[in-house]
Amino acid sequence: MAEPNDPTAGVGAGGGFSDGDLVLLVDGKNRSYLRRLTAGGFFHSHSGLLAWDDLMGRPEGSEVRSVGGTRFLAFRPTLSDFVVKMKRGAQVIYPKDLGPMLLLADIAPGQRVLESGVGSGALSLALLRAGAEVFGYEIRPDFARRASKNVQEFLGPEALARYHLSERDCYEGIDVEDLDRVALDLPEPWRVAPHAADRLLPGGILIAYTPSVVQAARLRESLERGPWALAATVEVLQRGWHIAGEAVRPDHRMVAHTGFLTHARRLGA
Ligand code: SAH
Fold first, then answer.
1. Does residue 92's CB lie within 6 angstroms of at least one atom of ligand 1?
2. What is the pLDDT of residues 28-48, one digit of tens each?
3. Do 128 and 79 form a contact (C-beta atoms < 8 A)?
4. Ligand 1 pocket test: which of 139, 140, 190 has the largest number of ligand atoms within 8 Å of its C-beta?
5. For labeling, which of 6, 173, 180, 268 is most exposed (least CB within 10 Å)?
């Protein structure tokens, strides 16, 4: 069993599947299903049952068949797989933005990170997976419970030792001291920036995800009035490509917009 502060908790061991593992089943049409393996249990597929016992002990990447003959490849889910499939309360930040957020905020093991709002816990999962200690402020207790369950499901109960959730309104203040990072995904981040400045260590980083550029601009105005430097706002565009023999072209459809990422560094006192 992993130590409570082990950032590798929840990372697949590389061994065969065993009882209680999360598994991602992918069929020939690239449809995927996220389930938990239970000894003696079954996956109810559109083409009939698949016995989980057929998968026990076998390595990731194994092929299994339902009684109706549909083939599935079985893998342990990646963090991205889990985030897009997990149960949600609030809308999540997608992997396209989670990855860049980790580097823009330079998240590293042992850092003290204030996150608000917590929502469904997608950003929490990314921060915890990167080894941070996360202090989450969320006004909706039902969302906080969902986030905590999602973290436990993917990273295991050990990760909860680094995940401190409070039912709090982040606009009213932050009571955690000596923060390395502040990560925001709530409607009015400019109302948090002054509190964040009080609690961040010199050189600390604030990052905020905002669906609207008007929110990003208001945040930038508030950063200009405070002890901040190196403020910047970016948008991450991701375009998939269809590659099949001679047919090589961009996908016809893409997600045209998710949100803007604004980040800045706390000046020395
Ligand atoms: N980043 C999250 C999604 C957050 S959705 C994820 O990736 O899963 C925005 C959340 O902010 C909602 O859950 C909402 O309840 C919460 N929220 C809104 N205003 C808040 C405030 N003033 N203080 C704390 N949480 C707030």
1. yes
2. 999 999 999 999 999 998 888
3. no
4. 139
5. 268
